[in-house]
């Protein structure tokens, strides 16, 4: 996708602070962090939403979630707890339509969010 910000990060055309990367998944710090740890985990392949990715390649969705947990371990928040968020659609706050998981932690996270 030529106009997708996250595809441009994957291709190296837009810089990002990469924290983990593998053959099919990449993780980088959010430029507007909402918690001390705020990392986005995305598939390299473009899929607009989590539901779309689940329908097209459920194994890749599993890899994405597994990579999110490894990010939490690397960041030292796996033991104390972290939030994994997929916003799907504009009403839910999705602003980049390339599926991405937010890994949030490092502080108490209230419920309900928002």
From TrEMBL:
Intervals of motif Histidine triad motif: 98-102
All copies of domain HIT, residue ranges: 5-114
Gene3D superfamilies: HIT-like
Superkingdom per UniProt: Bacteria
Pfam families assigned to the protein according to its UniProt record, in alphabetical order: HIT
InterPro entries to which the protein is assigned, alphabetical: Histidine_triad_HIT, HIT-like, HIT-like_sf
PANTHER family, sorted: HISTIDINE TRIAD HIT PROTEIN
Protein name, per record: Histidine triad nucleotide-binding protein
Organism: Actinomadura graeca
